């Protein structure tokens, strides 16, 4: 009950701070002008920015997985990814990111991980996480005075304070780890003072908890002394993880078509904001981060693009992180430590690529209906790439149950009808197949794909009951072939000219017929698959380059 009250309070506090931040940012600004500027942004540059956020969350999961294996605890990488997401979500919504690690410990306990072990791992994660900020802050203080004078002079006091607070925090944690006796004396005297000032009630149980925590700290000290190389590796991963997030702002800068500023300068400025606000008692440094951005990024974005740049940068660096981690926290809540029959479906790593493929295709259709046809084609190709490897990944799990195998067959086909049935039809319709004949062909194409997939499901279940060997041949043309055919046709559009629409009609009709034609097609070997991937990749790159050049010509 108490935890629920804390969660409700944190959410309310987050909403209040968010409302105040939005008012402070947009008060007196021309919203229409900002929207107009944002509509002209090249969204292709934002895709790697989103990837940076994913890498940021994924980086901590790799650290957790790596350290757990060092401590002889075996976990799935997907589970560690959920632990990481839970930590970032609760860090985003609580002051000073104070709720992240308690939430992670709670979910690790549900997965039967001992609390001393989870505390040890997360203690090291925290130390290295803040140590990166300490390195950045001290490096600029000692060797970057020119940079400070050029960009940070107006906020130098806040930056110095943030650096000092992070140094103090890391030092305090290292004292707690390597000098548990000294730490215990400090904490005991501190609690005694608080009791004398009537901030705390005297409780003997509090001293017992303190002694137990000191045991955990001693374990941390022993681990650090015995596994120095592990700590070095963790720090290196953390450095890469944090700078991946800082790099998202550089992609925002490029999305506006700007040039002149160096990538190192933009990334460093974003790192400075992190150093300055990390220890402040506000969720995600909300409010202060926006203010600092507006003060130090003027030479980079200019006055006209400063606010739109801040919106996109914070949107990627904080709100995308918040949204993605919130979604994965919901998944964690329903999967970690729960019996598998509590939820319908399968949620382990064997089906991740199938789920990703479906979501990407849905996004591609949204792009298409909003006029971004080339992005839609790119999403189709990405879905095809995911489909190439989802079966291989699923087969790596040796102990799959019959239910999991059958679910895999069904979910793969259901996803395929959306990704390679509905999505190509929507794309072709948006490209111009809107006449009676064109619509009829598209309707036939989707129906043929559906028939093929239903037949495949029946025959595949029958085949798996008879043998565990891999399929040597396809029966009919695989529906995923459209992820190859359509991008190639789109690449050839400039050469086809007026014949492009005819080519679309022919390709959709012929491919649909081949879906339901009873012939055997030998499955391609790894070399052939690699060649197919390379061809599709080159086709997508060609589409993106052409789209980018067209965009630049309109600037």
Attribute tags:
2 strands, mainly alpha, two-stranded antiparallel ribbon, 22 helices, globular, 555 residues, single chain, Four Helix Bundle (Hemerythrin (Met), subunit A)
E-strand count: 2
Count of the separate structural domains: 2
End-to-end separation: 56 Å
Q: How would you describe the shape?
A: globular
| Adjacency order of strands in the biggest sheet | 1-2
Q: Approximately what portion of the residues adopt beta-strand conformation? A: under 5%
| Number of contiguous helices | 22
pLDDT below 50 for ≥5 consecutive residues: which ranges? 551-555
State Rg.
Answer: 27 Å
What share of residues is helical?
over 70%
Main beta-sheet annotation = 2 strands, antiparallel
Derived from helix and strand composition plus strand pairing, the structural class reads mainly alpha
Order of helices and strands: HHHHHHHHHHHHHHHHHHEHHHEH
Report mean pLDDT, rounded to a whole number: 78
SSE order and pairing:
Blueprint: H1 2-26, H2 31-39, H3 46-70, H4 77-93, H5 100-110, H6 115-143, H7 145-152, H8 156-178, H9 180-196, H10 204-226, H11 228-255, H12 263-277, H13 288-296, H14 298-335, H15 352-369, H16 373-394, H17 402-431, H18 436-466, E1 473-475, H19 482-491, H20 493-496, H21 500-515, E2 520-522, H22 526-554
Helix pairs in contact: 3-4, 3-6, 3-11, 3-14, 4-5, 4-14, 5-6, 6-7, 6-8, 6-10, 6-11, 6-12, 8-9, 8-12, 9-10, 11-12, 11-14, 12-13, 13-14, 15-16, 15-17, 16-17, 16-19, 16-22, 17-18, 18-21, 19-21, 19-22
């Amino acid at each position: 009950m108490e935890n629920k009250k804390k969660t409700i309070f944190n959410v309310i506090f987050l909403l209040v701070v968010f409302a105040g931040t939005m008012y402070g940012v947009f008060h007196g600004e021309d919203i229409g002008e900002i929207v107009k500027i944002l509509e002209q942004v090249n969204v292709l540059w934002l895709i790697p920015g989103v990837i940076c956020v994913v890498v940021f969350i994924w980086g901590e999961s790799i650290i957790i997985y790596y350290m757990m294996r060092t401590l002889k605890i075996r976990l799935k990488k997907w589970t560690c990814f959920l632990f990481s997401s839970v930590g970032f979500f609760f860090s985003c919504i609580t002051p000073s990111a104070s709720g992240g690690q308690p939430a992670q410990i709670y979910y690790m306990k549900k997965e039967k991980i001992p609390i001393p072990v989870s505390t040890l791992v997360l203690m090291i994660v925290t130390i290295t996480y803040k140590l990166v900020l300490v390195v950045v802050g001290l490096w600029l203080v000692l060797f970057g005075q020119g940079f400070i004078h050029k960009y940070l002079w107006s906020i130098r006091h806040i930056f110095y304070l943030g650096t000092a607070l992070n140094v103090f925090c890391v030092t305090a944690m290292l004292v707690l780890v390597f000098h548990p006796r000294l730490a215990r004396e400090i904490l005991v005297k501190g609690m005694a003072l608080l009791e004398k000032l009537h901030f705390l009630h005297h409780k003997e149980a509090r001293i017992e908890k303190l002694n137990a925590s000191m045991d955990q700290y001693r374990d941390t000290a022993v681990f650090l002394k015995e596994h120095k190389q592990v700590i070095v590796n963790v720090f290196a991963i953390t450095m890469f993880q944090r700078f991946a997030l800082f790099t998202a702002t550089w992609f925002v800068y490029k999305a506006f078509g700007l040039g002149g500023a160096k990538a190192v300068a933009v990334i460093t400025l974003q790192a400075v904001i992190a150093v300055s606000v990390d220890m402040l008692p506000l969720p995600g440094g909300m409010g202060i981060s926006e203010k600092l951005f507006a003060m130090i990024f003027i030479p980079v974005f200019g006055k006209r693009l400063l606010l739109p740049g801040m919106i996109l940068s914070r949107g990627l660096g904080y709100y995308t992180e918040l949204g993605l981690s919130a979604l994965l926290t919901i998944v964690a809540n329903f999967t970690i430590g729960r019996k598998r029959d509590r939820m319908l479906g399968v949620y382990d790593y064997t089906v991740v690529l199938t789920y990703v493929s479906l979501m990407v295709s849905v996004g591609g259709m949204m792009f298409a209906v909003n006029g971004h046809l080339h992005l839609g084609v790119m999403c189709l190709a990405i879905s095809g790439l995911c489909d190439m490897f989802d079966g291989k990944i699923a087969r790596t799990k040796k102990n799959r149950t019959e239910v999991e195998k059958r679910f895999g067959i069904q979910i793969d086909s259901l996803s395929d009808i959306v990704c390679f049935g509905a999505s190509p039809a929507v794309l072709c319709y948006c490209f111009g197949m809107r006449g009676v004949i064109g619509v009829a062909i598209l309707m036939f194409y989707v129906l043929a794909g559906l028939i093929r997939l239903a037949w495949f499901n029946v025959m595949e279940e029958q085949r798996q009951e008879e043998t565990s060997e891999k399929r040597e041949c396809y029966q009919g043309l695989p529906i995923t072939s459209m992820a190859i055919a359509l991008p190639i046709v789109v690449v050839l559009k400039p050469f086809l000219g007026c014949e492009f629409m005819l080519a679309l009609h022919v390709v959709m009709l012929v491919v649909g017929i081949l879906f339901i034609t009873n012939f055997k097609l030998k499955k391609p070997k790894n070399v052939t698959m690699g060649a197919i991937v390379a061809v599709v990749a080159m086709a997508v790159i060609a589409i993106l380059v052409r789209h980018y050049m067209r965009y630049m010509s309109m600037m």
